[in-house]
Amino acid sequence: MESDSASDHDEDSKQRVGKEATKLSTFEGLVARTMVPITYDSWLKVSEGVREGLWQYVLFVVDPKSRKQILQSIGKKWRNFKHYLYAKFIKNRSKDPKANLFKPPKDYPFIKKEDWKVFVSHRVTKKWEEKSMKAKNTRAHHKYNHRLSKKGYDGLINDIMQETGKTEEEINRTVLWKKARELKIGGYDADMKTIVDKIDERRLSLLRRAMSVVKGLFSRVEEELIQASTHLYQINVRYTLGKHTHTRTRVYNRTRVYSRTRMYGRT
Q1: In terms of residue numbers, what domain contains 73?
Q2: What is the model's pLDDT at position 110?
């Protein structure tokens, strides 16, 4: 099964661009939920055969070079789906004796009963709880998470490129960082505003320093050009006045001859 639509990729940056990029992202989520067993402990353990099957199943016409990016995106959505299943159907019910944790959720009939049992059994172990707590503590240190939708940074870069006409290389990384954390109503929350102000101050300081360096370079180049020009002028004057010219002038009915031999190499 194929699609008439295409999700384009920028040849240099390999970022997704075009109106079909969001559709592709949504489709990847569907593939991640329905085609990758939740029994795998991590994406790294998903077999190459499964990954190749996912790649071949993608309905959109994409550049073959984007295989790695497509699979990475599917892997991220698969991990998010597993986290959602744990948070909604296991985490808050694991200590409820009446809860039938091993019954697959009706919302996802494609999840096999045996796969769900393996998934739950792994999530209720002490080892998993310790791992989950460690990951939670790590995320707690991420104070400045972005507010982007599913389009992510790829979509943000594409939007800025369309609005400004700049290439990806011309877009400053700090601009992306700030744009990704803006509130929907504009501006930033208090904690974020402090960081944004520091970024702006730092950029302004670097800009002033760069301008000072450039100004100094121009002044130095101008001075050297003046010195070189003066030096060349002096050489020309000495060269011209130090040579005899081969010409004739008549003074009081006499002919005075000046040699021009050395200057023009003629006799």
Answers
A1: 8-143
A2: 92
